[in-house]
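pasting for ref. prot 1 ->
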Amino acid sequence: MLDHYRCCVRTLWNNYFTGHQTFRADWDVSDEFEDICVQIFNTLVLNSIGKSQERKSPKYKELPTELSFFHVIPSVVKGVPIQINREKHKFTYWDHPLTLIRPGEADMRFVDFFNFNTAGLRDYEYCRVRIVASSIYSDIVGRNALLEYKDVTVLFDDAVPNAGKGQG
């Protein structure tokens, strides 16, 4: 379901929105597109898992809300690269010294897909997460982070908060 959403919004942006921004500022078009993405996410993802009352935060929101029922887990036992925010509650400066995370080292929840290039073509190669717990690295709790989507597994678990297991 997340793959369908990612493919859908990537195709829409790259084929129909990029290059058609001559009459308004890029940020206006990007924000309007993000509102469309929220609706698509609600329909393709949240409705399919019985969470139609929930909403994905738009990217332009100062502090987007994590979707607590989507657990993001590194898919490689030896660890995967991670970019963590320097400051808590911000989505800027991805230069925290911790750059590798292993399964079980942190409880990470899905926020959205992310692309550094906001004006041109987008691939949404990163998974944006909020770190909600860690028994090893207490200083990263509450921070936002980026992991390459190809390096993670996203599991749905609505039954037990912070459980880290469920169905994908």
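and prot 2 ->
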Amino acid sequence: MGRRPLGGHPYRLLRRLPQPRRDLVRRWTVLAVMAMETTRIRIGTLVSNPVLRPPTLLAKEALTIDHLSGGRLELGIGTGIEPLDHAAMGLDYWSPGERVARFSEYVEVVDGLLANPSCAYAFEGRFYRTREAAMGPPPVQRPRPPITVGGQSPTVLRVAAERADCWNTAGPLGLGMDEILETTHRQNDQLDEMCVAFERDPTELRRSLFLVGALDAWASHDALEKIVRRFGEIGISEFVLFWPPGERLNLFEHVATEVIPALRTGTLP
């Protein structure tokens, strides 16, 4: 819904594939194929993991896909919370403090590189450093491809308000819909205040909700409609859905052809 592309953590996505195909899937390679084989849909990541690639590499990949797609990339960046990623890269698991500190620097570097691709960009931080990093031609989308940051920590909210084009949340996992709604409402208000502090119009920051856990879009015939109505009232304008499980595929056509168009146009009864 909205303009959000489908996404998810790479290891979770891989676990859905038959074993022989898992080793063939690399998300940014797939995005390149999608960019060439589609013409209208927006494509992207939700979210790219700072554990798996340095910020200069992510910026270069993003700039490449932005050009291959003719300006249809949405770049999501997360904090890297999966222990499996650290183990795969031979790293000790980052503490919460290190993770959010890295995240803040990481997004700043990616933002700077994409907004100034033809300049010799330099950054000297605690965790990340780059010198004379010129990416290449300017991006198709100006000033750069839209950046989504995902998470709920105070640092993520601050980075969203300062630098991002969209904030994505799944709400506190393990809680019910009412508790998620209350928390998201409070965080939305905080984001508005932070945007003002950064001399930014709060309406410039899109708000996105990942439908997992208690927010199951496929739980019933009208589940998505109820979620969109309730969270739309507190400022969420984009909703991200997983592909439905096999036993609920019968709902997919109904949601895609009737519910989503009606929600967009406000014509549901």
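Confidence is low (pLDDT under 50) at residues 3-24.
The longest strand covers residues 73-77.
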